[in-house]
Amino acid sequence: MSDLQSGTNVVVVEDDPASADVLQRRLQANGMSVSIGRTGGDGLALIRELHPDLVLLDVGLPDTDGYDVCLQVKSDSATSDIPVIFLSARGDVFDKVRGLSCGASDYLTKPFHPAELLARVDAVLSQTRRVRGPRLAKQPDTTWAGKPTAVVALGDMTRRERAEQILGPKFEVIAAGAEGRAVDLLVVDADATVANQPGNDGPVVLRVASAGAATGADIVPLNDELVRIADLAVRERQLGRDVDAAADALIALATAFESHDRSTAGHSERVASRAVAIAKALGLDEATCQTIRVGALLRDIGNTKLPLGLVRSRNELTGPERKQIEQHPALGQELLTPFRPLARLLPIVRSHHEHLDGSGYPDGLKAPQIPLEVRIVAVADRYEALRIARADRPAMSADAAVQILQQSVQRGELDAAVVAALATSVRGQDRGEATGS
Amino acid sequence: MNQIAENFAQPESMPRHEDRFIASEELARLVLRTAGSHLQLAQDDRPYQWSTTAYCDTYDWSIYHAAEAGKALRLRFREYHRTRPDEAFTSARVWLELKEDTVDMSRKERFEIAGDVVPAFLRGETDLTAGGSAGLGLKAAALVKAGARPVVVTQYNRLAYAAPKDQIRITADHNLIYLAVPWTTNDDDAVPVRIGPILARETDVVIEMKWFGELPSWAEELHGYLRQRAPADRPSKFVVAMRHLLGANKA
User: Fold this and answer.
1) Among A375, A379, B32, B44, which one is least packed by beta carbons within 10 Å?
2) Buried b vs exposed e over A134-166: b needs ≥16 C-beta within 10 Å?
3) Under 8 Å CB-to-CB from B224, ≥6 apart: which residues?
4) What is the DSSP string of B46-102?
5) DSSP letter (8 states) at residue A199
6) How many CB atoms lie under 10 A from the CB of residue A85?
7) pLDDT of amino acid A134
8) Residue A132 pLDDT
9) Which of B186, B201, B245 sits opposite A420 (nearest CB)?
10) Are B82 and A101 a contacting pair at CB < 8 A?
């Protein structure tokens, strides 16, 4: 049995019970855990749930074809790193090219010899594991008492010992997975893949150049410089956490103001969650998602500087009242400007009521002047507002609200890709609710 | 103004016929076998490579509305990759295509440009007419001035057969995906741009027949067979993508 195969989780998507059974027994005999999906839909559900090390995929499936399943696996950022091997009786060269074009790592034509299958599984797994780094356990809350902690996860033992020795004066070096210990610094090989944690929550990850390789912006050398760079990076992360704490205090203030009004209580939190879901559907990175989340939570903080009666008014606003309400983005910016570390939020706070065609407020900005983060919060805000009942209309269904926003896209007010991402996130939520996941 | 199109393909300024069909996998195989016994594999399309095409429109969707009416100049950028990219404008060279459709004919001009000058082109800082455009370049410049920018992307694997000089061209597009593209700025660092989310997937195969003049008898027969067996008069990929983007499919 190969070391690579032992402990490997495999999802086999194969509609023929006899073939699936043979494959399962063969793989299990080599130490692999096997789950079988009989249809493309079942297979995708298993892949999303189990995040296996490998997928073996038949081309002919009852509900769809293997190419489509492979495309869906490779299009989803949560599963795109999982290698796929096609198993198919279709041996034409264009079938193979098509399978590989869909992102598969290999294509094996049936009937195949079991030894060839296992050899190809080995080859694909070894290639994948070279680029995957250690998976980090969920981080407990970090305390800032005593030396910060470091885990050194370099593959080569000599290099690992050298790194631990260099870090020793400033860091408490602990073993990976040490129970109950928060990790402030993780040192890995340059080519390791480490799961990112949102915002400032996870440890600082430093990538160390291999012997003789060049260093750069993201790759640090394995010499005495390492401890200086690591110390600076961990301090910077702590500063980021302090800024987050300041933002949290402001969010608490804005939420307290909002919660006085039952009809809008929790609205900002829903807008923030929706905005992050849209940002993720657009493939934005964690740092940008965090900016969007905090910006969405603080977007209406300017309301705290307006008369309470005006903000809570349920009556139709007069012209002058509307003008006053429309000042809240500028007031919000004025309020937050002294908090210099929150400068990245100001465009969201100032411009979340702007329209791409220039018909929004307070500045009448046009499309090229409105950043993507602002467009996202604007769409999330409009969507969640439509989902709440008002005096003049009932709450809208998710579909109806999306359609209203698509009409705004057609008029040139909202960003089309952002509304498409909203529709994707709403559909995903519907699917999740339908399956109870 | 800079001239971006240093090397450009010969403008296909002659009008040509074009029909599109949605076919099952089995029907597509039959079409490809027939085409393969009369035509050569097209030299400019490597079989089943990924074509990524970014289509532009203005903020008032003027290109889409014109396309729905059956007469539009489409402005698009095409790239080719061995595996499917999740970004557009990643290639050193990109094909800028200007395609003008009328009800039953189309005309196309194709320019090879550097991928990183796409933002400059969209800022209106480049001149296609200096590159030898047979007339579509001026119209494209007007669209750029009106704010045309990438709005939707299609990706697919194409198998193409063609006669010499593209007298007949028969293509089959598998794995067709329609995606949105969040384009917010024409600054130089706007490229490459991440594409997505996915708007829709085509489960069947899109067959296109394009030809100049008269069809030979075997192709006439194939065309008739396709007309009987597959839904014809299918809108262009651009129109289908835009309907998904704007939610116009529900109407």
Assistant:
1) B44
2) bebeeeeebeeeeebbbbbbbeeeebbebbbeb
3) none
4) -TTPEEEEEEEE-TT-HHHHHHHTT-EEEEEEEEEESS--SEES-SSEEEEEEEEE-
5) T
6) 21
7) 40
8) 46
9) B245
10) yes
Vertex A354: Cα angle to A351 and A357 (nearest 5): 145
Fold of A260-435: Hypothetical protein af1432 (1.10.3210)
B43: exposed, middle or buried (C-beta count within 10 Å: 0-12, 13-18, 19+)? exposed
B129 CB within 8 Å of a chain A CB: no
Omega within 30 of 0 (cis) for the link into A362 = yes
Calculate the alpha carbon distances from B3 to B75, B94, B98, B131, B146 in Å.
17, 15, 16, 7, 20
Instruction: Work out the angle at residue A127's Cα, subtended by the Cα atoms of residues A123 and A130, and round it to the nearest 5 degrees.
Output: 140
What dotted CATH number matches A9-130?
Answer: 3.40.50.2300
- The domain ranges of chain A are 9-130, 149-234, 260-435
The model's pLDDT over A214-226, given as tens digits with 9 standing for 90+, comes to: 766 678 888 888 8
Nearest Cα of chain B lies from the Cα of A101 at a distance, in angstroms, of 5
Q: Is B157 on the interface with A (CB under 8 A)?
A: yes
Domain boundaries, chain B: 7-250
CB nearest to B175's CB, from A102, A370, A402: A102
Strand partners for A151: A186
Among the listed residues A14, A55, A58, A66, the one whose alpha carbon sits nearest the alpha carbon of residue B175: A66
Q: What number does CATH give the domain B7-250?
A: 3.20.100.30
B chain contacts of residue A406, beta-carbon cutoff 8 Å: 246-247
Query: What does the block give as tokens for B189?
Result: 């660092």
- Cβ-based burial of B220 (10 A; exposed 0-12, middle 13-18, buried ≥19): exposed
pLDDT tens string A134-190: 433 334 444 445 788 899 988 888 889 999 999 988 889 888 777 667 788 999 888
